[in-house]
Design goal:
By secondary structure, the protein is of the alpha+beta class. 32% of the residues lie in helices and 26% in strands. It contains 13 helices and 24 strands.
Length: 491
């Protein structure tokens, strides 16, 4: 696979597109005013301890105090146990015995503020590198669970020898499976240097200071997205290109060598029609090359994907038509999950297949395509109803949630009442109010489509109601109103 990374930078927004053989595979967006706090390290001050909730509120200089639960208060683990094991197997020390009001704490954000809730904190610091995660307060050496079990012991032994006697805990990330010793050593050095800067800042800076901020999207491109198959990283900003070069040459020289400054006349995303792909990724329907299509619906609880043959009739018989459509759909679904960044529970409704070997082949192809995902996925087999249930880890907001908001007219339902339904709602409301009040006249203010229906097809019903209640009903068209909106004014 030939992979290119395109970076479109503007002061308000950074967009990164990953393109394989000319086809968009992933899109990452970071907005300056909406950048998350996860990974940030602060020198916080305990504002309040709540023994009844086994939690504390910590002031870190944000708009709202952050939340620290007792389960996220770090303490050294017994030798040989990974972080987090002790808190599940040993009695938990009450939070009031671990922190006190006014105490200065080194804390890290593990969950962004949401709505009225403040950020969630942990006192266990972890710093992510390109290949490793550094746990400076622990001595545990671990390997990602996504790496096959047979390779973990060998990789762990290699890592232990590279770490040496300097101490600190490390976890090998999935993309470090094939890394050389020199690459791992470079990452270890980068992470230790980052921790040294945090410790130095914690001594020099006052309380409520930001000591460490996770890399921005441009820097994370070099750390997380660049691989052996990456040919070029094209940046359309000279300033950002030079800043990335300096960062890359210090920490990731191999990735920095692939940087190219794009200065063409056409916008960089026009090279591969990226904006058109983004527009399609926000729609429900995804067309397949064969003539079939997918319908993707994202709800609060889960995402459903429905596969349809559409206009595809090219195979020799009906079973082959279904099989080929499902094979193509398996590839398309995996790509759409990456592109739209859909997470949580996902249900794929493939077209029913009679033959067992066809079902096995489609499932194998689907799982093969999911292996290309950087995010952890798990796909079960076909259920009794012919559905494939899977999960994909939520790492950030989906593309639709980031770029869109619920429709003001339908409130995200995807449909609105017909004009006739609104007319009948208004007639019922007038009758209800006529029983409670005694105005001189009722005036209906509604959208033009509703008013037109009152004047035409529903005029007889309106006249009958007016006669029944013994009051005149006047109409007023308001172009700014939505079809479901109306007012009944008592005059």
């Amino acid at each position: 696979m030939q992979e290119d990374i395109l970076i479109n930078w503007a002061p308000q927004e950074t967009r990164v597109a990953m393109v394989e053989n000319g086809v968009l595979q992933e899109l990452h967006v970071e907005r300056t005013l909406e950048r998350g706090l996860v990974g940030n390290v602060y020198l916080g001050k305990v504002a309040r301890v709540l023994p009844g909730m086994q939690s504390a509120f910590v002031d870190v200089g944000l708009e709202r105090a952050a939340f620290l639960h007792v389960a996220d208060v770090w303490h050294r683990q017994p030798d040989g146990e990974p972080p987090g094991i002790a808190r599940n197997t040993q009695p938990q020390i009450p939070i009031e015995q671990q922190v006190f009001e006014g105490q200065t704490l080194l804390v890290q954000v593990i969950k962004d503020p949401m709505g009225s809730k403040g950020a969630r904190l942990s006192t266990q610091i972890s710093i992510a590198g390109r290949l490793l995660v550094f746990l400076p307060q622990d001595d545990h050496v671990g390997v990602s669970q996504k790496i096959p079990a047979g390779q973990r012991d060998e990789l762990r032994a290699r890592l232990v020898s590279l770490i040496g006697a300097s101490g600190g805990g490390f976890i090998l990330r999935t993309n470090g499976e094939e890394a050389s010793d020199s690459e791992l050593s470079d990452d270890i050095a980068y992470l230790r240097k980052s921790w040294a800067r945090i410790k130095d800042a914690s001594v020099r800076l006052p309380n409520l200071s930001l000591l460490h901020q996770d890399l921005n999207l441009l820097q994370r491109v070099l750390r997380d997205l660049v691989g052996e198959g990456t040919q070029t990283i094209r940046v359309d900003s000279r300033e950002q290109f030079e800043a990335l070069q300096l960062f890359g040459q210090e920490f990731m020289p191999a990735a920095a060598a692939k940087l190219v400054h794009y200065h063409g006349e056409r916008p960089i995303f026009d090279l591969f029609s990226i904006d058109e792909e983004i527009a399609r990724a926000l729609g429900r329907r995804v067309e397949l090359k064969s003539g079939g299509y997918l319908i993707i619906d994202q709800t609060e609880a889960l995402t459903t994907v429905d596969v349809n043959t559409g206009g595809f009739v090219g195979a020799r018989n009906f079973d082959d038509t279904i099989f080929k459509t499902n094979l193509e759909a398996a590839q398309a679904i995996a790509r759409q999950l990456r592109l739209r960044n859909l997470g949580g529970i996902i249900i794929a409704d493939f077209i029913d297949m009679v033959r067992e070997d066809h079902r096995d082949a489609v499932l194998a192809e689907f799982r093969k395509q999911l292996l290309r995902d950087r995010v952890k996925t798990m796909a079960a087999g076909f259920s009794q109803l012919g559905l494939v249930e899977m999960t994909r880890k939520r790492t950030r907001e989906s593309l639709a949630h980031m770029l869109c908001e619920p429709c003001a007219s339908c409130q995200g339902r995807g449909s609105i009442k017909t004009a006739r339904s609104v007319v009948y709602d208004i007639l019922r409301e007038i009758l209800r109010e006529a029983r409670q009040f005694n105005p001189r006249e009722f005036r209906v203010v509604a959208s033009p489509k509703v008013i037109d229906l009152f004047l035409d097809e529903e005029s007889q019903h309106l006249a009958g109601l007016s006669e029944f209640i013994g009051k005149p009903v006047s109409l007023q068209s308001e172009a700014a109103m939505g079809q479901e909106d109306y007012d009944i004014v008592l005059i």
